[in-house]
Task: structure prediction
Amino acid sequence: MSLNLLRTEILMYKRRVFYVCAAMLFAAPALQAQPVDTQPGQLGAEPTSRPRIGLVLGGGGARGAAHIGVLKELERLRIPVDAIAGTSMGAIVGGLYATGVNADELEQLVSSLDWTAALSDKPAREDLSFRRKQDDRQFPINFELGIRGSELLLPKGVIQGQKLDLLLRELTLHASHINDFDDLPIPFRAIASDIVAGEAVIIGDGDLTKAIRASMSVPGVFAPARVNGKLLVDGGLIGNLPVDVMQGMGVDVIIAVDVEFPLYDSDELGSVLTISEQMLTILIRKETLRQIDRLTAEDVLIRPELGIYASTNFSDIVDTIGPGAQAVVEQSDKLGELSMSETNWKDHVARRKLRENDNENLAFVRVVHDGKLAPEVLESRLSVAVGDEIDATQLAKNANRLYGLQLYEHVDYSLVDEDGLTGVEYRAVAKSWGPNFLQFGISLEDDFDGSTAFNLSARMTRGGLNRLGAEWRTDLQLGTDPAILTEFYQPLSFDSRVFIAPRLELRQSNLKAFDASSTVARYRITDSQLSLDFGRELGTVGEFRVGAYRGGGNVRLKVGDPVLPNIDFETGGAFASLRFDSVDNAHFPRKGLLTDIRWNLSRPSMGADNKFDTIEADFSQTWSRGKSSLQLGLSYATTLDANTTIQDYFPMGGFLRLSGLERGAISGPHAALTKLVYYRRVSNTTGGLFETPVYLGFSAEAGNAWQTRDEISFDTMIINGSVFVGVDSYFGPVYLAAGFAEHGYSNFYLFIGAPPR
Result:
């Protein structure tokens, strides 16, 4: 596929996602539904002469939290609910309420939940394997493209729903032993759409978590959910306000809650975006109005006054609860006729308490997946074991550890009853857009004084090549510093701890020679290296490697006095490295330790021109309080036998590496740096679901590069500092910074991508 064709495919994909998002997040059906038959079910455990009340909760994204306000006021009025049918957000609220969760508990849930995290797929870094942490740091663009043969593949949704699924699983775990939704404290139906057949699907049995998840799978945003062999998406496509479903459940009175987005007024239609939204709203409103027409004089329609509150505004979601309650108050005269006596209400509430599964310990633990890996590889990642208590938090944490391998588009779990025993079954579904995956990175560095570096990079990873989990990854970088690297990573045990990794690397880079603050020469360094590495993973936080290498290259003068020499060199030797990464964010961490230590032995007996040993060590620790973070960084590099040449020197200068000096302004066989960096999160560039954190910060730095070890002292350290604005963007970190050094030196920087550390 050509680059232009790829761009076209991605653009068309983004446009499709936009239009579907607009349609669904503004809450509604785009297709006219036909009446559907439902299973009547048992709608109560006790006979009663009062009218049976059904609650219909419509979809509407974040606007759907108004349903909680409706439930709070219904509880205050002592109005019972005997059946619930819900779509999308209505299915979430209604499904949880049907299991016995009361309105106050629902309000506490939505007000305390980190919606931005829940509605994303990016796993917590602590759950990533160490190799995936490397990907996260080096290729921060949150977009993955699949390759199968000559075909480029996109995921089935922008969000696969991993975190949301586990959240729903935890919230419904107390009802996991119930298969028939009529056996819930309140009989429940979730409405979904069969994306293949174009028909409504009314889910009244099976896995409650999957039913809710299917009902809110906005096409193009969330990946479809597969339930009973059907590929299901958001029920709002066909039944956003399922009055007909509730009528099929045998109730006497229906309370229907409509939270769809309203039509814009004429003075609000001032752009192509709002006009497009209006067109979609008109199309999707038609079926809802048809459902409302099915209501009788005994039924009640509730429409909370939400104005143009956005369906994606999850950051202010609790603001919708009050209007939901107020809408019920405005109809309290009619609803009051349905109120129970205080005594009967207490009995009704008591009957809503769900009897939970009596089994408290796991009788078995197993993993089911559709990849090449041996089950032992996945089981080695689990910490939960037979005999452990059933703890939703721990069960979800283990699912996330499997998901952290980044081989699967979805990892879920469920409690399974077999022969009177309860165990947990983890299910991992391989990425449908594999088996090869492309990740991308971009870096731009400009000092506003004529020095610019720009690189585009891509990493192709082929994972899960055999039962032990081998993977082959290849990096390609184009721009100022072109490079290609390929590595075959082969674990030697089921627990993936010990591995062997042959590697080939070719790089080009620029090196400047300075006199005081002026550049006197610019060299182009070309280096190639073949190595064989052996190592051991240290859990998910680190890696130890040793290896032998052989290579060569040259240093060519590009700018400067022609009498300056060109250099050809041969390299060979051995190395040992230790890396540790426990930070919670690759670029703006709030906590954690980052360490990289490398010992290199250059030996003529192994093909090198010179004999020398070098030791490099980088360390940073981050602490946070509130919105503020403080990072301490220490770096030290030394040559034990100073028989090195220019290509082996350690450069200093640049943002956060003596910020007042130009990048690479000083270099030598010995270098050291200490820095203290403070940054504070000040705002988001956009609110709600798609947030982009913005930071203000400053640094204090001291360091230098020396030609001999005798020169190293505190007196020869150069004091530097910087102030900066940082944005944790979709393309990686973005910095706008000013650096200052003693003696009046200064520099200004624009960075896109991670700055050198």
